[in-house]
Amino acid sequence: MNRVGFWRLIAGLKLEEGQVSAIPKSVLEVLGHEWKIDEGYSAFDAVFNDREDQGRRSSPSFYHIATGKEVETDFDIFSHKEAKKLAAEHVFGLMAAVRDSGVTINEHAQHAFEDFCHEVYGAWAKYREKLDQVERFSKRPA
After folding, report:
1. What gap in Å lies between CA 90 and CA 4, rounded to an integer?
2. What is the pLDDT of residues 18-41, one digit of tens each?
3. Is the dihedral of CA 121, 127, 130, 132 positive or negative?
4. DSSP per residue, 29-90
5. Which of the two ends of the chain, N or C, has the fewest CB atoms closer than 10 A to its terminal CB?
6. What mean pLDDT is reported for the chain?
7. How far apart are CA 122 and CA 137, in angstroms?
8. Pairing of β 62-66 and β 102-106
9. Which residues lie closer than 8 Å to 108 by C-beta, 6 or more apart?
C-alpha cells in the first residue's frame, strides 16, 4: 500500500481511482471568511518548486493555534475551533495534531490549504465575470 492509500485508510476515505471526495463541511465553513484572490505568491510553491531545496520540505515549521484562539489579525486564517474541526475531518491528512493546548499544523499543509482557499475565491471571481458577460449579452428566462 502506498502512502496515499495508507492515509485514505486512516482517514476512512475509501475512494476509487479518479474519484474525488466531497469538500468537508469544515472547509466550506472556513471558505465563509473573506479570502483575497491569489496574487501570484505561494509560500507552498516557494518551498516545493525550489529546485535547490535546502531541506525545507522535510524539515518544516509548525503553526500552533492555541485553545480558545479567535481570528484577531490578518495573519490568523482560522480560529482554534475551526482548526480543530479541520483536523477532525482530516483536511490536513496526518499533518495536524489536536492537543489540550491547541492544534498544531505542519506549515506546508497549512500553506497548501491557504492556496486552496485563495484559488477558490479566484475561481469565484472568474465565474462572476463570466456571469456578467452572460447577463450583458443573453436573454433572461421568460
Report:
1. 13
2. 666 789 999 999 999 888 877 788
3. negative
4. HHTTS--PPP-S--HHHHHHT-TT--STTTS--EEEEETT----STT--S-HHHHHHHHHTT
5. C
6. 84
7. 23
8. antiparallel
9. 44, 47, 48, 57, 60, 95
Distance of alpha carbon 99 from alpha carbon 82, whole angstroms? 14
Q: Summarize pLDDT for 29-87 with one digit per residue, the tens.
A: 999 988 887 778 888 888 888 777 677 778 888 999 999 998 877 677 889 999 999 99
The stretch 86-108 carries a mean pLDDT of 95
CB atoms within 10 A of CB 128: 9
Q: Which helix (H) or strand (E) holds 8?
A: helix 3-11
Amino acid in position 93: G
pLDDT at 46: 83
What's the pTM value of the predicted model, to 2 decimals? Answer: 0.78
Res 111: pLDDT: 92
C-alpha cell of residue 101:
493546548
Tell me which residue has cell 507552498. Answer: 44
Find cell 493546548 and name the residue: 101
What is the identity of the amino acid at 43?
A
